[in-house]
Amino acid sequence: MSKRLPEDFIFGGATAAYQAEGATHTDGKGPVAWDKFLEDNYWYTAEPASDFYHQYPVDLALAEEFNLNGIRLSIAWSRIFPRGFGQVNQKGVDFYHALFKECLKRHIQPFVTLHHFDTPEELHAKGDFLNRETIDHFVDYAAFCFKEFPEVKYWTSFNEIGPIGEGQYLIGKFPPGIKYDLAKVFQSHHNMMVAHARAVKIFKDAGYPGEIGIVHALPSKYPFDKNNPADCRAAELEDIIHNKFLLDASLLGRYSQETLEGVEEILLANGGEMTILEADLSDLEAAKDLNDFLGINYYMSDWIRAFDGESQIGHNDKGEKGDSKYQIKGVGQREFEVDVPRTDWDWMIYPQGLYDQLMRIKKDYPDYKKIYITENGLGYKDKLVEETVMDDARIDYVRQHLEVVSDAIRDGVNVKGYFIWSLMDVFSWSNGYEKRYGLFYVDFETQKRYPKKSAYWYKELATNKIIQ
Ligand code: BGP
Predict the structure, then answer these.
(1) What is the DSSP string of 247-293?
(2) Would you give the DSSP letter of residue 116?
(3) One digit per residue, pLDDT tens: the chain, 468 residues?
(4) How far apart are the first and last CA of the chain?
(5) Beta strands in 68-120 (DSSP E)
(6) Residue 427 C-alpha to ligand 1 middle, in angstroms?
């Protein structure tokens, strides 16, 4: 029998400023670290992206036509504050007012993220969030936006603090490209969580109407052999790095004993220390019950084996299946040869992992208020044939994930919406324009949009709330 989703469910599409807007030097936008990092290290740049800076009326008209009722988008911090602080760029402010106005005109609720990987260059060069001054600048920027944009009712502080720490300091595929520095990973996680907590407190103290929350990427981590205690410990440690550390900070307002022991074990093997100030813990504690929602981005799960050796990560950037390698000293090693399908980029497709993660939040963090699935989708090398894309694999992927969302709701988890990544095709941070996710195919040369088969399927779903 077909499964259903609630009548008041949000059916959205997700985007992010840097991956969608293009116009990286237009109307006074300040630089971000990615501008140069992409030029130096990759075969593409953020120009033209999906030219959302100019095409947003087209994308929002399509969203309305296809019955969506939500869009995730982010504000580019450096359009508002070109240096990250100080002088405000009025043209940037005007752009976002116009964008939100268009969303509301089209009956699409904007869910607005303040930071989606794109710290202004000047602050990034001084250490990004490892430098505590960036925390203050972020909080000022957040306070400015809350006041300036009363038309926004759904705010997210950060998108994916976990992958930021991982990308910037562990894998090195995000600027500044540092590898295997676990102490920096945890310090970045922690400092960003403090910035989140302080922004949430400001929002609530001022009594703004609407909701505020945070978006975490939460891949489930399973032991390769669940009867092997060493594999189980490896999976726990991976879970601490990517999930538990951040969930504790967000929803417990402190780090649990198991989390701190895990961090200690990892840093003992890898060297380095992290600093947690007393004041930081008060900030986390003060904000823990103020989050209106937790956003979950879910794409994959991982199977982990015990591992005794040096760290080595091979990033599959071109989508050649089997190219990935992921082993971290003192933590574990990912095993890709398990009986689970995976994408060309070696992302393990496992809807049950989303169900398990939702049930885990309910059990371990029972004070959470509500959950939105803020990203989920399938990266694919889509082919445009006769003005459309027959993306049945994407439909299957989304269907299977929505089915477990429906199961989790039945089993008592309060999930209120789902945003497919992505609304229209955008480029991938570390895989370029070849990895597409959109409901709408973007011809990046002409910037024309073409609805894919999945767009028609999603429209039906958003209309009837029945997963078919
Ligand atoms: C998430 C990011 C998105 C998006 C997505 C797909 O981590 O929040 O911005 O990029 O993953 O990832 P990728 O583009 O690497 O395939």
Answers:
(1) HIIIIISS--HHHHHHHHHHHHHH-------HHHHHHHHHHTTT-SE
(2) S
(3) 789 999 999 999 999 999 999 999 999 999 999 999 999 999 999 999 999 999 999 999 999 999 999 999 999 999 999 999 999 999 999 999 999 999 999 999 999 999 999 999 999 999 999 999 999 999 999 999 999 999 999 999 999 999 999 999 999 999 999 999 999 999 999 999 999 999 999 999 999 999 999 999 999 999 999 999 999 999 999 999 999 999 999 999 999 999 999 999 999 999 999 999 999 999 999 999 999 999 999 999 999 999 999 999 998 999 999 888 999 999 999 999 999 999 999 999 999 999 999 999 999 999 999 999 999 999 999 999 999 999 999 999 999 999 999 999 999 999 999 999 999 999 999 999 999 999 999 999 999 999 999 999 999 999 999 999
(4) 9
(5) 70-74, 109-115
(6) 9
Q: Which of 21, 122, 160, 335 is catalytic?
A: 160
- Binding-site residues, ligand 1, Cβ < 6 A: 16, 19, 159-160, 163, 217, 297, 375, 379, 421, 428-431, 435
Please tell me the pTM assigned to this model: 0.98
